[in-house]
Amino acid sequence: MTPALERAWRWTRRLAPWVLAALVLGLVAQQARAVDWPEVGQALRQMPPWRLAAAAGIAVLSYAVYAGFDLVGRHLTRHRLSAPRTLGTAAISYAFNLNFGALVGGLAMRLRLYTRWGVEAATVAKVIALSMTTNWLGYLWVAGAVLLWSPPRLPGEWAPGDAVLRAIGALMVALALGYLALCAGSRQRT
Predict the structure, then answer these.
(1) In angstroms, rounded to a whole number, what is the distance separating the alpha carbons of residues 130 and 137?
(2) What pLDDT, in 10s, does the model give residues 34-49?
(3) How many CA atoms does the CB half-sphere of 170 hold within 13 Å?
(4) How much of the chain exceeds pLDDT 90, in percent?
(5) Is 153 helix (H, G, I), strand (E, B) or coil?
(6) Cα separation of 65 and 81, whole Å?
(7) N or C: which end of the chain has fewer CB within 10 A?
(8) Is the model's pLDDT at 71 over the cut of 80?
(9) What does pTM read for this prediction?
């Protein structure tokens, strides 16, 4: 690599986090401008306190479950990042994932944070893959169970019928069970 290219690469690596931060702040500001804040305040004041507390509890539980996926990834990959730092990294990434999509939160933010703490990129990729697989496995279980046992009423033009929805639900649950069977029967544990 030529000295000029090396200097350019060093500057790029120094500026890239700041450019990403500016982009994220710009997206946050854009989202915030689109919200009718007085209406939000009024809606919150009209809601019973127990409902707000329940919503906050469910949100905390959601973050804990999602961050727990990364703890499983930590255990399986044996990376040396502490459990609290792993949970924090996963929670921050989850917040970005919910607000800016999987590419920014689920992938880019995790990669940036984990590598900053000294975890190798290949190990981060394994943690991300495990987390995504676990997340989608959960979707298969929940959506499959709902479709199998209590198919929702869909609009007329979408309604394939209860039998078709139950079959799709059964297929989703079978896929989830198949994944677990493959894991249980696997001799290789990587």
Answers:
(1) 10
(2) 889 999 999 999 999 9
(3) 6
(4) 49
(5) coil
(6) 19
(7) C
(8) yes
(9) 0.70
